[in-house]
From TrEMBL:
NCBIfam families: pbenz_hydroxyl, PRK08243.1. Residues 3-343 form the FAD-binding domain. The keyword Nucleotide-binding does not apply. It is an enzyme of class 1 (oxidoreductase). It comes from the Bacteria. Its EC number is 1.14.13.2. The keyword Phosphoprotein does not apply. Transmembrane segments: none annotated. This is 4-hydroxybenzoate 3-monooxygenase.
Length: 390
C-alpha cells in the first residue's frame, strides 16, 4: 500500500494534521495503537487558544465547538485568602480562550475523518518506522495477526510521549531536556455546576488547586498531590474537603459536590526533544514535548506544531518547495520553548514544593500580588495564556 503521509497516532495532533491535509487533497493513513473508544476515554486538556480554534475551523471541525464551547474572557488567581480576576480580553486587546474538552475535539475530528472516508487503522501494533533517513520511507505494523507495509513520502510522529516515533530517531541526533516536578495533579470530573463561571488557579499553603469545567453543569477540579500518591487514598469526600480548604471562602462556599465519574492522577513534567525533524520523519505534539498543565498549553502546542507542519507540507505538495519543511523544526521549537517557559513559571509560582517553606510561600504571594496589581505583569501573563502569536 502507498500513501502520501503516514501519521502515527490518532490523538488531536494526528487527527488535525490529517484533516487539514485531506482538505488540500494530500492522502494520509493514521495508525493508532489503541481502540477508538480508548482514545476517546482519556480525559485531558480543556482550554483552547484562539489560534487552536481557528485551526479547527480551517479543518472544518469547529461547528460543535462554536455551539457548545464556552468563551472565557478572564481567569482568577486565588492566594492569601483573596480572589483576583485577570481580564484576559481587556489585557490582550480583545482575545479570549475557549473551554472545550480535548475529548470533544478528538471526537469531532474523528467524525470528520470518518465522514470524509479517510483511513485510520485502530489497534495497529508493532508500528515501526523505516527508511526515513532517505527518500523512500515506509512504515510496518501488525493488525489482527497480519503484517502490513505502507510506503509514503513522509512520516508524521504524532504518537505522544510514549510513542515509537521519537524513539526511532537516531540517538546521536536527538537532544532532550527534562524537568520532573515532585508532585502530580489529582483530577476529578463531576456532573455538578462549576464553582465559578471562569477558571480559578489557587496558590495555597496546602498545595495548588484548580477549578475548571467542561460545561455549565460539568466541573473539572484538580488538587496538587505528592508524585507518589495513590489514587485509592482519595475518596470523593476527601477530595471535596481538600479542594475547599485550598480555595478562598467565597469560592469554597460555591463548590457543589457530587459523585465523581472520573478520577486520575497525572504526573507533572517539562520535556523537550530537539530537533523535530529527522530526514523524512517529523515529530509533532506530545511526541516531542510535554509541559505541566498549569499553563493549559499541552494541546495548544500540539496544534501549533500542526499549523507549522501543515503549512510546510502544503508548500511541498502545492509549490514543490522544501523550504517550509527545512524551517519546521526551528520555527515550531521557538514557540514551544516559550510555552515551556510559561508553563514552568506558572507551575513554580502556584505550587508547593518540598522546599517552599514559609519564606517561599511569602515570595509566591508577593509575586502574585505584584502580578495582579501591575498592568505590565498582568499583560505578560494574559498574552501567554491566550496564546502567543505564530
Ligand atoms: P496524544 O494525545 O498523546 O496522542 C498520541 C496518540 O498516539 C497513540 N500512540 C501510538 N499509535 C501507534 N503506535 C504507537 N507506538 C503509539 N504510541 C502511542 C496513542 O494511543 C495516542 O492516541 O498526543 P497529541 O496528539 O500530541 O496531543 C497532545 C495532548 O494530548 C496533550 O498535550 C495534552 O492532553 C496534555 N495534557 C493536558 N494538557 C492541557 O493543556 N491541559 C490538561 O489538563 C492536560 N491534562 C495532559 C493531561 C496529558 C496527559 N498525559 C499525556 C498522560 C493529562 C494527562 C494524563
Ligand atoms: C482542564 O480543564 O482540564 C484544565 C484547565 C486549565 C488548565 C489545565 C487543565 O491549566
Amino acid at each position: 500500500m502507498r500513501t502520501n503521509i503516514v501519521i502515527v497516532g490518532s490523538g488531536p495532533s494526528g487527527l488535525l494534521l490529517g484533516q487539514l491535509l485531506g482538505g488540500i487533497g494530500v492522502e494520509t493513513v493514521i495508525l493508532e495503537r489503541s481502540s477508538r473508544e480508548h482514545v476517546l476515554g482519556r480525559v485531558r486538556a480543556g482550554v483552547l487558544e484562539q489560534g487552536t480554534v481557528e485551526l479547527l475551523e480551517e479543518a472544518g471541525a469547529a461547528a460543535r465547538l462554536h455551539a457548545e464551547g464556552l468563551p472565557h474572557a478572564g481567569i482568577s488567581l486565588a492566594f492569601g485568602g483573596g480572589l483576583h480576576r485577570l481580564d484576559l480580553t481587556a489585557l490582550t486587546g480583545g482575545k479570549h480562550v475557549t473551554v472545550y474538552g480535548q475529548t470533544e475535539v478528538t471526537h469531532d475530528l474523528m467524525d470528520k475523518r470518518e465522514a470524509a472516508g479517510l483511513t485510520t487503522v485502530y489497534e495497529a501494533s508493532n508500528v515501526a518506522l523505516h527508511g526515513f533517513g532517505g527518500e523512500t520511507p515506509y512504515v510496518t505494523y501488525d493488525k489482527d495477526g497480519v503484517s502490513h507495509r505502507i510506503d509514503c513520502d513522509f512520516i508524521a510522529g504524532c504518537d505522544g510521549y510514549h510513542g515509537v516515533s521519537r524513539k526511532s530517531a537516531p540517538e546521536r541526533a536527538l537532544k532532550t531536556f527534562e524537568r520532573t516536578y515532585p508532585f502530580g495533579w489529582l483530577g476529578v470530573l463531576a456532573e455538578v455546576p462549576p464553582a465559578d463561571h471562569e477558571l480559578v488557579y489557587a496558590n495555597h499553603e496546602r498545595g495548588f488547586a484548580l477549578c475548571s469545567m467542561r460545561s455549565a453543569h460539568r466541573s473539572r477540579y484538580y488538587v496538587q498531590v505528592p508524585a507518589d500518591e495513590r489514587l485509592e487514598a482519595w475518596s470523593d469526600d476527601r477530595f471535596w474537603d481538600e479542594l475547599r480548604r485550598r480555595l478562598p471562602e467565597q469560592t469554597a462556599a460555591a463548590v457543589v459536590t457530587g459523585p465523581s465519574f472520573e478520577k486520575s492522577i497525572a504526573p507533572l513534567r517539562s520535556f523537550v526533544a530537539e530537533p523535530l525533524r529527522f530526514g523524512r520523519l517529523f515529530l509533532v505534539g506530545d511526541a516531542a514535548h510535554i509541559v505541566p498543565p498549569t499553563g493549559a498549553k499541552g494541546l495548544n502546542l500540539a496544534a501549533s506544531d500542526v499549523r507549522y507542519l501543515f503549512a510546510a507540507l502544503r508548500e511541498f505538495y502545492l509549490d514543490k518547495s522544501l523550504g517550509g519543511l527545512d524551517a519546521y523544526s526551528a520555527k515550531a521549537l521557538a514557540r514551544v520553548w516559550k510555552a515551556v517557559r510559561f508553563s514552568w513559571w506558572m507551575t513554580t509560582m502556584l505550587h508547593r514544593f518540598p522546599d517552599t517553606g514559609e519564606f517561599g510561600q511569602r515570595i509566591q504571594e508577593a509575586e502574585l500580588d505584584y502580578l495582579v496589581h501591575s498592568q505590565a505583569a498582568s499583560t505578560a501573563l494574559a498574552e501567554n495564556y491566550v496564546g502567543l502569536p505564530y
